[in-house]
C-alpha cells in the first residue's frame, strides 16, 4: 500500500561513531506470537461506522491555527469556524494513500535502530512524570541528574529498545530550556533512538535541529531520526500547541504519534465501545493531517484510555482499559499504520505488589494488542506522575520475559526431541541427557531479580523483598555504566547549539 | 459427541439447606473473550503425532496395579510387564467416545454449583502447601485453623468459585486423618463445591462417603459432587497410589483431573514442544483409563509445567511455561475434554512485587489458554510450598479483574453512545452526561485493595503498601464471616462418620 522506508544514505554521521561494546541484543522485538483478536468483524465495522458518524456529524476542533484549517479546506473537509467535519472514509483514504505501514527510526548507533510497525515491538521508557521515587530518598521532584540516570539504565537494559524522551521532567532546569538538556542527555549517555520535544513549536524545531547536528541534515531530511507524541485534547480537540509541534515534525518527515487520551467517564463516555469510536476518530483526524502536510511522513495511531475509580475519582487501569487496548489494536491494523499504545502502568506510589500486579497485567494486554511502540514500558507509577528507579529495573526484567514470550513456541523434530524420551524413558529424569545439556544455558529466561531459591536460602541471603533487590540492582548498573563513545565534533556542535539557544531563552519555571 | 450432564434429581440433600445470604455473584465465569491461539494447525498436528509416537514406541508405566493392567489388555493395549503401549489414536478415540466435554460439579448450595468445560472458567484456591505465611506471624507450618480460615476467605470471595481441597496442609492433624478434617471443614465453613483426597485409595473412599452423606448416595451416583487431582509421575509413570485414587473416583463417577507435572529439564526435556508432547501423552493415558473404568466419568486434561532457574536449579514459572500453557489449551480443545491448568503462581517468599508480577502474568496466560478449572488461582507462593493470607486476597482481587476482562467488549448502539457525544461535543467532559450517569456505579471494576488516590491522600491514609492493606482486609473479612447454614442432621452424620474412621486410623505424622 505504501512505502515502508524512505530512500537516503544509511547511517549518516552516526556511522562514524565507534560502536559501543555494550549491551548487545536484538535491538527490538520481531514477534512470533500473534496478536489477540477479541472483536468480531461485525463489531469492528460497527465501531468504524461510529467513528465515521462522529467525524461527519460532530467533527473535531483544530484550535488557533489558520494554516491547519486551510489545509483541511483544501483537502475537501467542511470547516465551520474551528470545527472541521469529514465525509465518511475521507480520513482513512488520506492515511492509507501515503502513510507507511512500517518505518525505521534511526539510532546514532545503526545497530540500535528500531523498526516500528507490523510484527515489530519497541519498548520505550516512561514519559513525562515530574516526580521520581527511589527507596533511597522516597519521592521528590525530578532533576536532570535523575533523567540522565534513567537514560543510562535504559541504555543498559536490552529489553528497553529506545531511549524515550522525558523519562522524568528535569524540574531543576528552566521550562523553556529543558528540552535542550533532555535531548543532549539522550545523545550523550545513550546510542539508542530517542524522542523530540512537543511542548511548543520552537522546542520541536530545536529537537529537529539537534537531530540534524547528530545525523546530518540530508540524512534527517530523508529518514526518521526522531519520534514525538502529539496528544489530542480529548474529546475531539487538537489545540494550537499540539498543532505547532505536529506541523514541525510532519514538515521535517519525523515520526508523530497521535494520541487521544480518554479518561472513561470524563474525557470520553464510560463504555469501552465509545472509547474505541472516539479514539479511532481522533487518531484518524491527526494522522490524516500529517499526510496532508507531508505525504509519507511516519505516523502512528495512538490510544490511551483509563477507567475511573469510583471511590477516589482517579483514573485507573483495570480490565476495561486492557480490553479497550486490545480492541484498538484490531482497529489500528485495519487502518494500516503502526500503533503506539499501552505500557507498564500502575497507580501505586511505591514499588510494591500493587505496582507489579498492575504493570504485569497491562504489559501483557499491551503486547496482545499488537502495539508497536510502547511508551511507559519501564518505570512508570503513581498513574504516570512519578518514575521509579526500582520499578524501572523490575519492569525491564518483566519486559525481557515478555520479549521471550513473544518469540513463541518452536515446533520441529529437534524441539520435540523424541530421542530424549528414548534415552531417558519412563520414571527417570532428563537432567543430564544430551537434549538438555545441549540447551540448558539458553533455553529458559532467567530473571536477574526474581528470587527462586528455597525459603532457607532466601533467608540466608538476607530475606530481601523484590524492591530492595531492585534498589541494589539499579545502583550496581549505574556504578558499572560506561558511556557509548560520541564523536567529539558532534558533541561540540551540540553544545554550541545549546549554548546559543539558552542565551536567548528565558529562565522561567512555569 | 458425548453427554454433557448425567441424569438424576437435581440438588439432592443440598437443596434442603437454607440458602446462605452471602456472597452473591455469578458462581463461575462464562467467558466472552476467546482463547488465544498461538500454534498453527500444522504445529498442533505435529505435536499430536509426537505424542502418538511416544505412546506407541515408549509407552507409559502403570505401576503396582494388576487390575489396571488387565483393563489395558482388555482394551487392546500392548502390556509388557508394567509398561503399556498404545496404537496411534487409540487413547483419543477412547476418550472422545464417552468423556463429557462439559459437566457440572454440584455444590451443597445449588446456586454455587460450577460448570466445568467449554467457555466456562472456575477459579480454585491453592492446593497442597505445608506452610502458611501472613505478615502477622511470617512463615510457619500450616494448621487446621489456617485451612479453615482460607476456606472462609474462599467462601467470601465471589471471584473464587470453588472451595478447593488442601488449601494448606493441616499439619497438626495426623496424616491418615487429615482428609477427614479437611473435607468436613469445606462442608462446614463453605457451601461451594470442593475436592476429594487422592493421597491414598481409602482416603478417596472416605471422600466419596462424606459426599454421599452430604448429597445423598443416589445423587452422588448420578452426579459429580467431587473433583480430584491424580498426578502423573512424569515422565510417563502413574504410580500405585495415584491409580488407587483414580479407580475410586472413576468407579464413583466423580471428576478426575489427570495432571502431568513437567519440570522442564528434569521430569521432561527442556523445550516447550517436548513438554507439550509429553503432557498430551500422559494426560491421554490417564483420561482414557477413567473412561474404560466407567464410561462418561467426568475427566479433565491436566497440564502443569515449569521452567528451571539455571542459577538456583529451582522450578520457576516464566515466559516458557506461559507459552506451554497456552499451547496446551489448544491441544485440550482438540481432544475435547475440559482443561485443568494454570494458576497465580510465584516463587516469592513474601507478598511483594515479585509475588504479584509473577502471579498476574501467569493468571492472564492461564485464561488465554482456555483453562476451565484453575487450581492455585489464589494464595500460592514459594513455588507452591506456602499459602499466603495476604496474597490470597490480592489474588482474589486480581481474579475479579480477570473475570471482568473475560466478559469482553459489548458493541452496540447503547454502548457506543453517539448521543453522549452529541450532548457533550468537543472540548467538554462527560462526567455528568446522561450516558455516564446511567452507568457509573457499575461500569468499572473497582478493586478493594488497589490504592488509586493521590500521593498526598495515600500518605495521609498511612502510606501503606499493598501487603499491609491486604493484611487488614483478610482480617476484616474473617472478622465479619458468618457460616452458611448446614442441616444439623447432615452435620451429625458427618461427625459420626469422622469419629468412627478416626477410631481405626493411626496417629502417624509421616
Rg of chain A, please? Answer: 23 Å
Structural class of chain A: alpha/beta
Uncertain segments of chain A are 1-23
Kindly estimate the percentage of residues of chain A that lie in beta strands according to DSSP.
Answer: 5-15%
Greatest interface: A-B, 130 and 130 residues
Helix content of chain A: 40-55%
Main β sheet profile of chain A = 5 strands, mixed
Look at the structure and give the mean pLDDT of chain A. 94
Number of helices of chain A: 18
Helix and strand arrangement:
The structure is a homodimer of 510-residue chains.
Chain A: E1 29-30, H1 41-58, E2 60-62, H2 66-75, E3 78-80, E4 83-85, H3 90-98, E5 102-105, E6 114-117, E7 120-125, E8 131-134, E9 138-141, H4 144-156, H5 178-189, H6 201-215, H7 217-222, E10 227-232, E11 237-238, H8 240-251, E12 255-263, H9 272-293, E13 299-308, E14 315-316, H10 319-335, E15 339-341, H11 353-368, E16 373-378, E17 380-381, E18 386-388, H12 389-406, H13 413-416, H14 418-424, H15 434-437, H16 455-460, H17 466-480, H18 488-504
Parallel strand pairs in A: 2-11, 7-16, 8-18, 10-12, 12-13, 13-15
Antiparallel strand pairs in A: 1-7, 2-4, 3-4, 5-6, 8-9, 13-14, 17-18
Helix pairs in contact in A: 1-9, 3-9, 4-5, 5-6, 5-18, 6-8, 6-18, 9-10, 10-11, 11-12, 12-17
Amino acid at each position: 500500500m505504501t512505502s515502508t522506508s524512505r530512500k537516503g544514505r544509511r547511517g549518516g554521521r552516526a556511522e562514524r561513531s565507534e560502536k559501543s561494546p555494550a549491551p548487545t541484543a536484538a535491538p527490538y522485538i520481531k514477534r512470533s506470537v500473534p496478536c489477540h483478536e477479541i472483536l468480531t468483524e461485525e463489531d469492528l465495522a460497527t465501531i468504524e461506522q461510529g467513528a465515521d458518524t462522529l467525524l461527519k456529524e460532530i467533527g473535531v476542533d483544530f484550535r488557533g491555527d489558520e494554516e491547519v484549517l486551510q489545509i483541511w479546506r483544501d483537502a475537501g473537509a467542511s470547516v465551520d469556524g474551528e470545527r472541521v467535519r469529514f465525509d465518511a472514509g475521507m480520513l482513512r483514504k488520506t492515511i492509507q494513500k501515503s502513510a507507511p505501514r512500517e518505518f525505521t527510526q534511526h539510532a546514532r548507533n545503526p545497530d540500535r535502530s528500531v523498526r516500528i510497525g507490523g510484527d515489530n515491538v519497541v519498548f520505550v521508557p516512561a514519559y513525562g512524570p515530574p516526580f521520581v521515587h527511589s527507596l533511597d530518598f522516597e519521592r521528590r521532584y525530578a532533576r536532570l541528574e535523575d533523567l540522565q540516570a534513567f537514560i543510562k539504565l535504559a541504555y543498559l537494559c536490552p529489553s528497553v529498545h529506545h531511549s524515550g524522551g522525558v523519562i522524568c521532567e528535569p524540574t531543576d532546569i528552566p521550562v523553556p530550556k529543558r528540552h535542550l538538556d533532555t535531548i543532549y542527555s539522550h545523545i550523550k549517555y545513550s546510542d539508542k533512538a530517542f524522542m523530540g520535544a512537543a511542548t511548543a513549536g520552537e522546542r520541536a524545531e530545536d529537537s529537529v535541529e539537534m537531530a540534524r547536528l547528530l545525523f546530518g541534515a540530508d540524512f534527517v531530511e530523508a529518514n526518521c531520526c526522531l519520534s514525538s507524541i502529539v496528544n489530542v485534547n480529548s474529546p475531539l480537540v487538537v489545540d494550537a500547541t499540539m498543532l505547532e509541534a505536529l506541523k514541525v515534525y510532519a514538515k521535517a518527515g519525523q515520526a508523530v504519534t497521535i494520541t487521544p487520551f480518554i479518561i472513561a467517564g470524563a474525557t470520553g463516555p464510560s463504555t469501552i465501545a465509545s472509547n474505541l469510536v472516539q479514539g479511532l476518530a481522533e487518531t484518524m483526524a491527526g494522522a490524516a493531517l500529517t499526510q496532508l502536510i507531508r505525504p509519507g511522513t511516519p505516523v502512528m495511531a495512538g490510544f490511551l484510555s483509563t477507567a475511573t475509580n469510583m471511590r477516589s475519582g482517579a483514573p485507573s487501569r483495570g480490565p476495561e482499559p486492557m480490553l479497550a487496548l486490545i480492541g484498538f489494536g484490531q482497529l489500528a491494523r485495519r487502518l494500516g499504520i503502526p500503533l503506539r499504545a499501552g505500557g507498564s502502568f500502575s497507580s501505586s506510589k511505591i514499588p510494591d505488589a500493587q505496582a507489579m500486579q498492575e504493570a504485569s497485567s497491562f504489559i501483557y494486554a499491551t503486547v496482545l494488542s499488537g502495539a508497536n511502540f510502547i511508551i511507559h514500558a519501564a518505570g512508570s507509577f503513581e498513574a504516570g506522575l512519578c518514575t521509579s528507579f526500582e520499578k524501572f529495573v523490575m519492569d525491564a526484567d518483566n519486559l525481557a520475559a515478555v520479549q521471550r514470550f513473544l518469540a513463541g513456541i518452536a515446533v520441529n523434530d529437534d524441539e520435540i526431541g523424541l530421542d530424549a524420551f528414548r534415552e531417558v524413558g519412563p520414571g527417570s529424569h532428563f537432567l543430564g541427557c544430551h537434549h538438555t545439556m545441549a540447551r540448558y544455558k539458553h533455553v529458559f529466561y532467567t530473571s536477574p531479580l526474581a528470587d527462586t531459591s528455597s525459603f532457607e536460602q532466601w533467608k540466608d541471603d538476607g530475606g530481601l523483598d523484590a524492591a530492595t533487590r531492585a534498589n541494589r540492582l539499579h545502583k550496581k548498573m549505574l556504578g558499572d555504566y560506561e558511556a557509548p563513545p560520541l564523536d567529539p565534533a558532534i558533541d561540540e556542535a551540540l553544545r554550541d547549539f545549546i549554548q546559543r539557544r539558552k542565551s536567548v531563552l528565558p529562565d522561567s519555571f512555569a
